[in-house]
Specification:
With 186 residues, the protein is mainly alpha-helical. The protein has eight helices and no strands. The protein has one domain.
Length: 186
């Protein structure tokens, strides 16, 4: 019952393919958008969509969703799911993720100062915080740049494997449930 309700809710949230493909900016890309893996939730395109979203979520700036859509087209991943998955980075999570990425990159640059010595700027207001955050990131340099790439690849790999494992466990559980509910053979 809950599964059907969840599926119906997801179907209501999904944009109409016809509505999207009629948009003037999209019309020239319609042949590429006709691939069913871009729209359907199956184990392959879902796992790829989550991986693409996790990979592109750490791209600095507002191009995360555009990067997720481009990689989804390239790797035939579910691109609405990839675009939504990029939202794991937001104003509340980006600083801890970048601190983690810095520490990850510091593994390859041992002479870099520890993260405690380079704390992010305090949040006062949005207008002054964004430039201060950009200056802070530039100060972190090579360890942060390498750490972002490594963390994005790690998150994408873990996300891909986790979706595949969870999907497989769900399918096996459904097989076993149907086998238990089936009348015994004569």
């Amino acid at each position: 019952m809950l599964r059907k309700a969840l599926r119906a809710w997801i179907e209501r949230l999904k944009p109409s393919v016809q509505k999207i493909t009629r948009h003037p900016w999209v019309v020239r890309h319609v042949p590429a958008l006709s691939d069913p893996d871009l729209w359907h939730l199956n184990r392959r395109s879902t796992a790829r969509g989550v991986a693409v979203g996790l990979l592109c979520g750490l791209i600095p700036g507002p191009v995360q969703v555009a990067g997720a859509i481009a990689l989804s087209l390239l790797w035939r991943a579910n691109f609405p799911l990839a675009a939504i998955t990029t939202l794991y980075t937001n104003p509340f999570t980006i600083v801890p993720l970048y601190l983690l990425a810095y520490e990850y990159g510091r593994l390859f640059f041992p002479d870099a100062p520890p993260v405690v010595a380079v704390l992010p700027p305090p949040f006062v207001d949005a207008a002054s915080y964004v430039p201060a955050l950009a200056a802070w990131m530039a100060e972190l340099g090579k360890p942060l740049a390498l750490g972002i790439v490594l963390l994005a690849l790690t998150l994408a790999t873990v996300g891909f494997v986790a979706v595949r494992v969870v999907w497989r466990c769900h399918v096996v559980a459904m097989w076993r449930k149907r086998a238990r509910e089936r009348p015994p053979a004569r």
